[in-house]
Amino acid sequence: MTDHVFKLSEIVGTSHEGSDAAIRAALKRAQSTIRNVKWYEVVSQRGFVEDDGTVQHQVVIKVGFALDD
Amino acid sequence: MTDHVFKLSEIVGTSHEGSDAAIRAALKRAQSTIRNVKWYEVVSQRGFVEDDGTVQHQVVIKVGFALDD
Amino acid sequence: MTDHVFKLSEIVGTSHEGSDAAIRAALKRAQSTIRNVKWYEVVSQRGFVEDDGTVQHQVVIKVGFALDD
Amino acid sequence: MTDHVFKLSEIVGTSHEGSDAAIRAALKRAQSTIRNVKWYEVVSQRGFVEDDGTVQHQVVIKVGFALDD
Amino acid sequence: MTDHVFKLSEIVGTSHEGSDAAIRAALKRAQSTIRNVKWYEVVSQRGFVEDDGTVQHQVVIKVGFALDD
Amino acid sequence: MTDHVFKLSEIVGTSHEGSDAAIRAALKRAQSTIRNVKWYEVVSQRGFVEDDGTVQHQVVIKVGFALDD
Amino acid sequence: MTDHVFKLSEIVGTSHEGSDAAIRAALKRAQSTIRNVKWYEVVSQRGFVEDDGTVQHQVVIKVGFALDD
Amino acid sequence: MTDHVFKLSEIVGTSHEGSDAAIRAALKRAQSTIRNVKWYEVVSQRGFVEDDGTVQHQVVIKVGFALDD
Amino acid sequence: MTDHVFKLSEIVGTSHEGSDAAIRAALKRAQSTIRNVKWYEVVSQRGFVEDDGTVQHQVVIKVGFALDD
Amino acid sequence: MTDHVFKLSEIVGTSHEGSDAAIRAALKRAQSTIRNVKWYEVVSQRGFVEDDGTVQHQVVIKVGFALDD
Amino acid sequence: MTDHVFKLSEIVGTSHEGSDAAIRAALKRAQSTIRNVKWYEVVSQRGFVEDDGTVQHQVVIKVGFALDD
Amino acid sequence: MTDHVFKLSEIVGTSHEGSDAAIRAALKRAQSTIRNVKWYEVVSQRGFVEDDGTVQHQVVIKVGFALDD
């Protein structure tokens, strides 16, 4: 393995479906602007309950990506 | 935003289906007795394995709700 | 000291002024419904930024009070 | 196992005897007002030293109990 | 309840489907070699993003099982 | 609520006045370059004592903001 | 001191008597199968309340032992 | 920068005014007996509620100072 | 309550009897050299297993005491 | 000291030599694109073992730098 | 990537040379008995000072390895 | 083992060479004033980047030593 330097960005994905969908939303958004996304780590999970009782799930993740040389 | 005071209650939802279903079960129970449930935060996740090998998932969450004035 | 049993309730005070004011708001609300409030512990601090840029500070505290015998 | 919802209450038992006695005091008080106490988890341990040098031990525990359906 | 001694093993389940599936994979593997698996606790969640953009989810769990007498 | 993706940036505000002023300094700087700042979370508090004994307070916060679609 | 390599095993001792007895039960079991047990560290303490109100205390410990060369 | 060795002392400042005043009280006391106080880090915040409802805020800080050569 | 400043010292009590005895040993030693010991907080618990299988329990505590004015 | 605002970036340095070299690699990369790098804090350390048994050490650090006014 | 299940073992490497050497000692020992060692994570670092003042450094790591199918 | 009482002091070693050298500097300083230094535990690692780009590494350790009887 070549010795790269990586950067971690902390982002929050949201979804009305569930926690896995919130992670996918966060990763999809990250991949649209960052090349070389390599891994994620879940930091915390929470959600907001709207006035009609439906729930918006939020998952905070750190996304790791290789910095270009 | 008006300056409300909120309370956090720690509850444990359980489900044989998975962790998202356990969160939903906990929130549904909370909303049946507490008005003004506004958000939740996941504290921890675990589960019990029954004698026949099936798994009961448990998610500990904190539920935040506005105290009436 | 007599051997009492105490209970901890987690509440969130909010204020547009600052974090000390948010703690005072939470304690004032607690004292209006709970007798024998004895101490508090800060759990976390955060805040919401409103659309006009003003900030609502939130302090999560645990309030300890003596259970009546 | 039926899928119940549980609640966690944080209480503080005190005893001049020691930490196990403080846990028993907290559980005894909890069982006098809550039905269905199922488990406890130790959160932290501390104590106060009185002017004559004797010690009041305090154990903070979370008590889990099944919510009635 | 008889006073057993339990052991905790830390394992990592992986799945391209999601976090619940990763937990199931870890538990299934544990049950194939360990008798008396009784519970699990989630330690952390993360995932690797492959070159084609698909994601391998990883859930680190501790598995508790009764030691034979 | 629409399902947005948010980003968290960790910044450190400083002030000779106190911790609330340090948070305000950090938020003001963040709002000058980032649109859509929505919330902050306090990570840690510290300070440096200068040679003449005056104190520079530092508050580390995470600032959450909505990513444009 | 010779430079050995040690291993840590996480085990759970249980006892109806108290936490010290639960630690002793865990260590006794460990020593019956592992040679060279050198130290333990308490990870967490909890307990289950049985239907008749008696309590089974559980102490999770890590046991350190020297690996044979 | 010369390579000094520093020491950290954990002290608790108290004030009826607020948390910043409690930090100032702790630092003032530290500076009266320790030369070369260089920085502080907040460890935790809490307070005691007196019988008349007034509050004594307490901030636990670590104070760093250079050891004389 | 007068606004005192307190100091926290971290000490380790040891005992072949159990954890409560280790806490008592640490407090007794602290009280022999420090006036005004007011409280303790348990930081961690561990123990060493001697060659003959007996166990020396160790409890790390922080001891709080009032600084003289 | 002037009251600046700082930013923290989380990066991962890698090296086949060891952990200090991994920190140096991360700092060198940071300094090539960020002016005013002032400090770092180690978040975690880990490493990957390659198929031939050699090890790539990874150190996750937070890098603090002054934001230009 | 194929969906494997991994196991984490917690081991302690020791060395009179330094922390990197202690990690290498732990990994070398792990690789001598476990096939498929893939990564390590540093849990904590400490050391013992011997009577002649020399120091034995200890690094606690978790070693991850693929379980055979 | 005789049942001693130990004390933990938190100190910060600094070095331009690396983290192991910073630990050695802290231990050397501790041993010059404290008899009976027995062990250390690493609390955190950080460093300051000087204006010319060189780095001063800092390691915060707790030093344990036996209190004289």
From TrEMBL, chains A, B, C, D, E, F, G, H, I, J, K, L:
Pfam families, per database record: Dodecin
Protein name: Uncharacterized protein
Species of origin: Croceicoccus naphthovorans
